[in-house]
Specification:
binds glutathione, Glutathione S-transferase theta 2, alpha+beta, four-stranded mixed sheet, 99 residues, Glutathione_S-Trfase_N, glutathione transferase activity, single chain
Length: 99
Amino acid sequence: MGFLEVYLDLLSQPCRAVHIFLSHNKIPHKLRIVALRKGEHKTPEFTKLNPMQQVPVMVDKGFVLTERSCRPYPVLSLMRTAIRNPVERDEEGGYVGML
Ligand SMILES: N[C@@H](CCC(=O)N[C@@H](CS)C(=O)NCC(=O)O)C(=O)O
């Protein structure tokens, strides 16, 4: 299963919202820290990912979502999973995998 990648700076409120949502719902993800104070969002690599040079950014199997669209996206993924495959949860009801 390819991990969801999220590019965040945890000093940023929108980023914390994404991170809290993913963690609370036990959605496996790879956290990639982008330190705004060090200008890491201005690098050519990050600019390729998000030309707006802002966090949060989420990458799911090559599909890139930027800014506020990151926030409803995990909700939609969870709903999609629950509808199509409700057994993809652990014993405590935590999310196990992306479709
Ligand atoms: N519109 C975005 C906000 C994105 C945003 O403003 N990100 C800030 C951090 S909170 C950022 O990356 N700032 C860097 C910059 O603009 O240079 C959302 O609602 O998620």
